């Protein structure tokens, strides 16, 4: 149901995507709006509209522009009503096709979207070029905090060396009036610049009254002067015109939308005051009339080509060689001090490349933020062969941390990165600083891996990525173990899974509950029947576990997938199950996030079992360290001609697939095994496989272990 809203502010019609003003129809349940033309249009009109939209289908419907934090949507302007929008770059009225952010009121002509320079040589700060970036600082022109201004979601121009910043609007201001009363050129501040919130902020430095209307300002000196206090005479003569010129309010000559000064023949702002000849409609800038000795063809500073990033990088390098303090707010908000030796700072990583710190670097003494010396000299802009059509700009932080995935290596990055804002193409420092030929070959397993898929535990699409950061801790949403290595990640909500957890079956049979099938689901209460620890609470996202619907028992995922090898010894009446390194990682997470006092203790020595592998009996709820269980260190087994030695783990090669040579089934590379030292790498077996075919054990068991064996037989 659509309701008539009556007179309204300017809005965007959600059907034709035109900006309109006046009456409209709105949905009472959602922000859907229609202008009157679309609301009463016939079916033929809608067909024609669709044809026009198809003709514009070659244009990008949305674009992520480098100067605005939100995506910009393609619109078609409809000039209906008295409210007009202007392009935020050229300040001219919107016409035809343009891009915009409706929520912020930020719009750009289509032809202006690629004209906004990323670096700017500005007369307010002639010593260094200004770079376009998202900063949280004060604008030096209007003295307003940029993040709280109307341009809070738009990039600003800043000098990283001097911490000089101009917001998007103030960057278009230029000093134009050279007056004998001041050694700097003065900048005209017109009504389009003035923010109503700051109306009472500026005070005239001459008469001490508030600057409520237009005034002149010196940004370098923070000097403000009314036009009458400069003074700007109400009547003036100019050698290029025979009639007297009168200081007048802003004048719009016609409706063409193009206004020029008749002295310098450059475009003028129709909202600025001018000198005007009443007899022959001669119109001129104030500064062109008063600056009699200045040439009218003075170059506009904003039109000079931006300094190259290579030159700027060289400038930074030269500066850093002569100074021990580095000030680059884009990198870090505090000054960084050069340090020759960083090894004594402990195990710390560089904030840019996320690699361990070594050699000289820069350190923030307040918060111990550290950069390698080379990382502190990274250029602000590069041209990379993987994306030759545009430059890539350097960023220290991301506005969307859940989307920090390098488009080359698919690594999840948390350090600095290079970004093309127009194409949303991202490279981490590793890929940005090496040639494409150095990236290495793709293995067969990597080429066969799916880059995106859907999983039954999540409603959104999951994308493949590598999680290799040494400091950032992320947990798999299924098994709750720490993420490291190949993963699948949801760009929408941050859901993340181990690559191995994707292969977890929805239903499985386990030897310790062979009578029924276990189903993967989430449970909010109860305990694990294997380790006796509580299930993860449901408020901790969704707690997935394996459970038996018939018996009502539940198991942690780490327990259900790890406890697949039962061991039967003469020393105990029930089967014992091996808890290895996977459970130890799970137990460490459990103590950190669930219960700091949780513990599993050895029933023989009384010491805690965490930190090492152990065996557990599910019937008696008792645990044994491997040494307390008196497993023989060396055995002679029927499955191999040589004696076998007990080892805590054995990794054969880099194939990621390891097998028991007795049963020929897969084994965990980090679990205890029996290993033949006489033929290295030829024979490796599960503990239960080797002991089940044991010929002689007792003569190879150390004397102190025999005492423990006699004790365990009495259990």
Structural key phrases:
Phorbol-ester/DAG-type domain-containing protein; zinc; 715 residues; Znf_PHD; Wheat Germ Agglutinin (Isolectin 2), domain 1
Task: Report what the structure shows.
The protein has about 725 residues and is an alpha+beta fold. Among the domains are: about 10-115, no CATH class; about 120-170; about 325-375, Wheat Germ Agglutinin (Isolectin 2), domain 1; about 380-430, no CATH class; about 505-625, no CATH class. The protein contains ten helices and 47 strands. Strands 28, 31, 32, 33 and 34 form a five-stranded mixed beta sheet that branches. Strands 46-45-44-43-47 form a five-stranded antiparallel beta sheet. Strand 35 (about 505-510) and strand 36 form a beta hairpin. The N and C termini lie far apart (about 75 Å). The model is unreliable at about 295-325 and about 695-715 (pLDDT under 50).
Number of strands: 47
Alpha-carbon distance between the two ends: 76 Å
The overall pLDDT average reads: 75
**Helix proportion of residues, in percent?**
10-25%
Strand percentage:
15-25%
Oligomer: single chain
Shape: elongated
Low-confidence parts: 293-323, 695-715
Rg value: 36 Å
Which structural class is indicated by helix and strand composition? alpha+beta
Helix tally equals 10
Q: Biggest sheet: strands, sense, closure?
A: 5 strands, mixed
Give the helices and strands, then pairings.
Layout: E1 2-4, E2 11-12, E3 19-20, E4 24-27, E5 33-35, H1 36-39, H2 43-55, E6 62-63, E7 72-76, E8 97-101, E9 106-109, E10 119-120, E11 130-133, E12 156-159, E13 164-166, E14 175-177, E15 186-189, E16 215-218, E17 223-226, E18 235-238, E19 241-248, E20 274-276, E21 283-284, H3 286-290, H4 309-322, E22 325-326, E23 336-339, E24 361-363, E25 370-372, E26 381-382, E27 392-395, E28 411-412, E29 417-420, E30 425-428, H5 429-432, H6 444-448, E31 452-453, E32 462-467, E33 485-489, E34 496-498, E35 507-510, E36 513-522, E37 544-547, E38 554-555, H7 557-562, E39 566-567, E40 576-579, H8 581-593, E41 614-617, E42 622-625, E43 634-637, E44 644-647, E45 673-675, E46 684-685, H9 687-692, E47 694-696, H10 703-712
Parallel strand pairs: 28-32
Antiparallel strand pairs: 1-4, 2-3, 4-5, 6-7, 7-8, 8-9, 10-11, 11-12, 12-13, 14-15, 15-16, 16-17, 18-19, 19-20, 20-21, 22-23, 23-24, 24-25, 26-27, 27-29, 29-30, 31-32, 32-33, 33-34, 35-36, 36-37, 37-38, 39-40, 40-41, 41-42, 43-44, 43-47, 44-45, 45-46
């Amino acid at each position: 149901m659509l309701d008539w809203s009556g007179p309204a502010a300017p809005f965007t019609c959600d059907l034709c995507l035109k900006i309109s003003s006046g009456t409209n129809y709105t949905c009472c349940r959602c922000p859907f709006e229609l202008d009157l033309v679309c609301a009463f249009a016939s079916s033929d009109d809608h067909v024609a509209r669709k044809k026009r939209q198809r003709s514009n289908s070659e244009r990008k419907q949305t674009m992520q522009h480098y100067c605005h934090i939100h995506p910009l949507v393609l619109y078609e302007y409809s000039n209906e009503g008295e409210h007009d929008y202007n392009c935020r770059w050229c300040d001219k009225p919107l016409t035809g096709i343009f891009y915009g952010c409706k929520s912020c009121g930020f719009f750009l002509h289509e032809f202006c979207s690629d004209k906004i320079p990323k670096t700017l040589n500005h007369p307010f700060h002639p010593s260094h070029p200004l770079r376009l970036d998202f900063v949280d600082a004060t604008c030096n022109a209007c003295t307003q905090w940029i993040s709280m201004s109307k341009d809070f979601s738009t990039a600003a121009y800043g000098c990283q060396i001097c911490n000089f910043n101009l917001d998007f609007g103030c960057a278009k201001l230029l000093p134009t009036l050279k007056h004998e009363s001041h050694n700097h050129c003065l900048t005209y501040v017109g009504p389009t610049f003035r923010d109503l919130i700051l109306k009472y902020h500026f005070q005239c430095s001459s008469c001490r009254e508030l600057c409520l209307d237009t005034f002149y300002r010196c940004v370098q000196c923070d000097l403000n002067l009314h036009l009458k206090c400069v003074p700007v005479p109400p009547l003036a003569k100019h050698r290029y015109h025979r009639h007297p010129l009168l200081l007048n309010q802003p004048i719009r000559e016609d409706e063409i939308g193009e206004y020029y000064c008749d002295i310098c023949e450059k475009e003028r702002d129709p909202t600025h005051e001018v000198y005007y000849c009443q007899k022959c409609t001669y119109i001129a800038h104030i500064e062109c009339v008063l600056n009699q000795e200045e040439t009218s063809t003075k170059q506009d500073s904003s039109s000079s080509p931006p300094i190259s990033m290579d030159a700027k990088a060289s400038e930074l390098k030269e500066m850093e060689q002569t100074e021990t303090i580095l000030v680059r707010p884009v990198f870090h908000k505090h000054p960084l001090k050069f340090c020759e030796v960083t090894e004594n700072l402990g195990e710390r990583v560089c904030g840019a490349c996320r690699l361990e710190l070594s050699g000289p670097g820069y350190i923030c003494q307040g918060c111990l933020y550290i950069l390698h010396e080379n990382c502190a000299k990274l250029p602000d802009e590069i041209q990379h062969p993987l994306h030759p059509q545009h430059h890539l700009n350097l960023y220290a932080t991301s506005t969307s941390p859940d989307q920090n995935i390098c488009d080359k290596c698919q690594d999840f990055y948390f350090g600095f990165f290079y970004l093309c804002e127009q194409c949303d193409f991202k490279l981490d420092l590793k890929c940005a600083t090496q040639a494409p030929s150095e990236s290495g070959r793709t293995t067969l397993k990597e080429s066969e891996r799916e880059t995106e898929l859907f999983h039954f535990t999540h409603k959104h699409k999951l994308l493949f990525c590598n999680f290799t950061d040494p400091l950032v801790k992320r947990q798999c949403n299924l098994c709750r173990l720490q993420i490291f290595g190949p993963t699948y990640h949801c760009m929408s909500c941050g859901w993340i899974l181990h690559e191995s957890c994707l292969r977890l079956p929805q239903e499985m049979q386990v030897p310790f509950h062979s009578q029924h099938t276990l189903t993967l689901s989430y449970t909010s209460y109860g305990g694990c029947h294997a380790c006796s620890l509580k299930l993860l609470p449901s408020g901790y996202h969704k707690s997935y576990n394996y459970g038996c619907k018939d018996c009502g028992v539940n198991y942690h995922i780490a327990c259900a997938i790890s406890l697949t090898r039962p061991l039967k010894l003469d020393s105990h009446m029930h089967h014992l199950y091996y808890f290895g390194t996977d459970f130890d990682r799970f137990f460490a997470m459990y103590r950190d996030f669930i219960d700091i006092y949780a513990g599993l203790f050895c029933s023989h020595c009384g010491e805690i079992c965490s930190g090492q592998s152990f065996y557990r009996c599910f019937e008696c709820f008792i645990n044994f360290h491997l040494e307390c269980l008196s497993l023989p260190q060396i055995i002679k087994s029927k499955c191999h001609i040589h004696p076998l030695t007990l080892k805590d783990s054995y990794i054969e090669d880099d194939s990621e697939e390891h097998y028991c040579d007795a049963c020929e089934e897969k084994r965990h590379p980090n679990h205890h095994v029996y290993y033949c030292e006489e033929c290295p790498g030829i024979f490796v077996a599960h503990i239960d496989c080797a002991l089940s075919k044991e010929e002689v054990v007792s003569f190879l068991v150390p004397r102190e272990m025999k005492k423990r064996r006699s004790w365990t037989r009495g259990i």
